[in-house]
Structures are given as C-alpha cells and as structure tokens.
Amino acid sequence: MINSANQHRLRFLLILGTLSATGPLSIDLYLPALPQMVRQFHTTTAMMQLSITACLLGLAVGQLISGPLSDHFGRRKPLFIGFIVFGLASLAIAVSHSVSLLIGLRFVQGLAGAAGQVLSRAVARDLFSGKALTQFYALLNSVNGLFPILAPIIGGFMIKFVPWSGIFILLGVIGFLLSGLILIGIPETLRPENRLTGPVFQSFLSFGTLLKQQGFFSQLLITGVVYGSLFSYIAASTFIYQQLFHLSAQSFSLIYALNGLGIVIGSGLPARLTGISTYRQLSSGIGLCMADAMALLLGAYLHWGLVMIAVLIFLLVIGVGMLLTLTTAIIMGETTQNAGGASALIGLSQNAFGGLSSPLVGLFGTNSLAPMAGLVLIYNLIAGGLAYRVHHQLHK
Questions:
Q1: Would you say residue 182 lies in a domain?
Q2: Is residue 197 part of a domain?
Q3: pLDDT digits over 103-137, tens only?
Q4: Which residues cross the membrane (predicted)?
Q5: Are 320 and 232 in contact (CB under 8 A)?
Q6: Is residue 3 assigned to a domain?
Q7: Residue 396: CB atoms within 10 Å
Q8: Which of 18, 152, 256, 298 is deepest in the core (most CB within 10 A)?
Q9: Closest to 25 in 3D by CA, of 168, 139, 115, 147
C-alpha cells in the first residue's frame, strides 16, 4: 500500500496539499468580505476578527482530537468525517443572522476542518523520512501556499456579484467535494500493526510522551510564534491595504495573492538548500523576519508609501513560509511514533498563536502598521532565543 503511494507521489501531493489548506480555504476566501460583514452585522472590526480567532481555535482543538484518533483508527475515517461536518457547518454559517452564532459556527467549522491539516502531515510522515520528508513538506507547503493566492482573488471577485454568504456556500460545496476525494484518492497509510492499541482514550496519552522528549516543547513554541507572525499579517492585511492605503477589495485581493506566492517561494526554499544545515536555515529565516519587522516599524513611523510597505511584507511572508516548512520537518522528522499526535500538537501551537494574534492586532488598532510589525518582531525574537537554546542543548 505504501509502495503504491510512492508510485503516485504527485497525486498524493496534490490531494494532501488541498486537504491541508483548511486554513486558507476557511479564512483567506472571506477576508475581502470582512468590511462588508462588519457593516451588515452592525458590529466592530475587533468583533468580526473574532470569527478568524474562533476558526483558528477550532482548528487547534480539532487537531488534538483527530490526530490521536488517527493513530488509533487510521487516517481515512477521521479525514472523511471531518470534511462532511466542515461542509455542513459552512452552509449553516451562510444562513446565520447573528454575529455570535456566526462566531460559534466558525469554531465548529475549524473543529471539523482540522482533520485536513493534521492528517496531511501525518500521512506524509507515514510515507517519508529524513531529507525526503523535508522535501515533501516543502512541496506540500508550496501547494498549500497556492490557496492564499487563489482564495482572496475568488473571494474578492465573488463579493462583486453575491453577498458574503455566497462565499460560505462555496466552502460547503468544497467540503463535500473533498469528502469524495478522500474516498477515491487516499488509501490508508497507517498499517494496522503500527496503530495504537487498547482503549481509545489511551491514544491521547501520547501527548505526554511526546512532550517529555528533549527540545520538543521548545520546538512547538517556535512553530507557534512563526504562525503567529503569519496571522498578525493576515488579520491586519485587509484593513492596512483597504483603509490605510485606500485600495479596493479587488486590488487588495491581488496584493494578498502576490503575498501568497511569497509563501510558496519561501516554503520551497528548504528543499533547494539541502547543503545548508537546518539550524542555519532556521536562524537565517528568523533573522530575515526580525529585520523585516523592524523596517516595517520604521515605515509606520515615517509613513512610507504603498510600494515600499508591500515589498517588505512580501519579504516577510517568504521568511515565514520558509520557517513553517523547516519547523514542521524538524518536529515530524524526530517523531518515529505517534505521528498523528505530534502533528496535532504542531497544529495546536500554530493555531493557538494564530488565534491570539488576530484580536491583538485589532485591539491595538488597524490604522497603522505598528501593531502588526511590533507583534511580528516580538514573535521572532522569541523564536530566535528558543532556536538557539534548543540547538545548544542538543549539541553539547
């Protein structure tokens, strides 16, 4: 079965890349509609940004459920059930008339869609190891990065002709289509002899075993703050470009799509830099993000123009894309068992920091670059310190 999967690597790459794009599908597609939704629901920007946070928290909690369950039951069943519920939740959001209900349903949507994120990483770990695993994650993240390019363009185009609810109807259709794709395109990659045995609840005890591994918790924090950097940008982007620089929803969608291309470029870099040590790549990526954040803070103070700010943000997302591939490959590469549990903890860390970042950016204001840039700088200072500590602990 696994040999068959290796023979169809491209097919696996495309399917897993699509399944892992739950985040971009759930968030980037409706970003251009956020200002419209603020007006229609008669609410505040910070309150509507909680719909991003709710989805991210759902993604985090859902991964903690589907990851260990997949170590027990295999990968396919949690994937299929997750995307059926994702489709149903998306359709329910489309007909909601209360911002509180919308936020609650967004949590359910993230909870269900989490299976795609966590299990795409686990399936890859079932199939590959070592440099091959890093290269596959680089390709997987590159495919995943296509969705931030396409989603806001589609979303920006749709809201010219349909209300915001049409975007969530589309998400419901996508959820059901992916459920069918799982049935026909994903074989079971976790052999029965490699699954956890005993009562189901014991699957969740694997978290404790993983967290006891030297450096594991610090590496989780690193990937979390890197993801926090990404969502600091995502949460602020629509308001920075549309309110600060007065771009239309369609122009914003094009710039956001260009930054998605930056994530694709960055995600693929580790596969091309195999001659450079992982730690050097990691420290270089963190350094790039720190320097970029400081430049953005300067730009906020000096009121730099659109072109300069857009270039700096493009460089930032390249660095973030590179770091996401590296941190995922490092953690999963050092996990020989309980790949679902390890992937779930990655998702928890990433989505928790992502969920924290969205309201923080809104809380400190959306009329300046400074809150976003300051948060990115703080996150990468933390990542740099942790990376240095872990490296020297493991290489004494």
A1: yes
A2: no
A3: 999 999 999 999 998 888 888 888 887 777 888 88
A4: 12-34, 46-66, 78-97, 136-159, 165-186, 220-241, 253-273, 285-304, 310-332, 370-390
A5: no
A6: no
A7: 4
A8: 152
A9: 147
Instruction: Read off φ and ψ for residue 349, nearest 5 degrees.
Output: -65, -45
What CATH code is carried by the domain that includes residue 353? 1.20.1250.20
Three state DSSP letters for 34-81: HHHHHHHCCCCHHHHHHHHHHHHHHHHHHHHHHHHHHHHHCCHHHHHH
Closest CA to 382 of 228, 234, 214: 228
Give, in degrees to the nearest 5, the angle at Cα 251 between 246 and 255: 105
State how many domains the chain has.
1
Q: What is the pLDDT of residues 268-306, one digit of tens each?
A: 898 888 778 888 999 999 999 999 999 999 999 999 999
Cα dist. 371→46, 262, 310, 345, 363 in Å?
A: 14, 22, 16, 27, 9
Domain assignment of residue 198, yes or no: no
Range of the structural domain that residue 27 is part of: 8-192+203-394
Which string of b and e fits 341-355 if b means at least 16 CB within 10 Å?
A: bbbbbbbbbbbbbbb
248-275 pLDDT per residue, tens = 877 887 888 888 889 889 988 988 887 7
Q: Which residue has the tokens 């072109």?
A: 307
Residue bearing tokens 């009562």: 199
Length of the chain: 396
pTM above 0.70, yes or no: yes
Between CA 387 and CA 283 the distance in angstroms is: 7
